[in-house]
Specification:
Layout: H1 2-14, H2 17-37, H3 43-50, E1 58-65, E2 70-77, E3 80-87, E4 93-97
């Protein structure tokens, strides 16, 4: 009985996490599709433009928003997280959030 209760609880707690884990993969796949279609610039090109503008900051990685067709590059400097939002179509910085 304890085993059944434990398994039921484990399954119930594990199910809500599945859609959350699936979302980053969907965004990554959409980024690939947008890149192949020519509607966005390659991430490496955008990183080559933005990284030199962030001296002293450690680059933590990108996220892609397929709806906005924008990348959010995440940095940390002096214990503070900095987000740089970039238009994936043009490569222009939209905003910097500190």
């Amino acid at each position: 009985m304890k085993t059944t209760l434990f398994l039921s609880l484990a399954l119930a707690l594990g199910l809500p996490a599945a859609p959350v884990l699936a979302n980053p993969g969907n965004a990554q796949e959409q980024a690939r599709k947008d890149l192949r279609s020519g509607s966005v610039r390659p991430l490496r090109e955008i990183e080559q433009r933005v990284l030199p503008t962030m001296p002293g900051a450690q680059y933590l990685g990108p996220e892609y928003d397929p709806v906005a067709q924008a990348y959010r590059l995440k940095f940390i400097r002096d214990g503070r997280v900095i987000f740089v939002d970039v238009d994936a179509r043009t490569g222009e910085v939209i905003r910097t959030l500190k």
